[in-house]
Amino acid sequence: PGGYLEVQDVCLPVRCGDNTLQGTNLERYGKLLLEGSIKLGAGLDTALNTKRFMEEAGFMDVVEVIYKWPLNRWPANKQMKEIGLWAHEVTASSLSGLSIAIFTHGLGWSAEELEVFLVEVRKDLKNSKIHSYWPM
In the chain, where do the E strands start and end? Predict the structure, then answer.
């Protein structure tokens, strides 16, 4: 009683508020990463259910706040632009590590196929004409 719990989690796939993500390798990457995680039994979209899980567990007055973390410096807002800078650096620099097990074990890709694909994904991540974000 009287407790407080904060949960933060990323939720796949990558999102976009307009159609600039459509048809990109980044869009394909997000969908494939989610598909592979589901095949491995650990879907990276479980954050969609966090509020319901907490309510079912008996928590009361559950408040869900979803933040948008831009994946590069596309936003006009100075604070969001800075978040985008950091989110881009973290995502781009850890892309291989985030992907290798899911793509090789979950989707059957070779490590070489994945790295070739990630070159294109990194280009999309850097492209400020693509208004992508992680829902957090």
Answer: 15-16, 68-70, 132-135
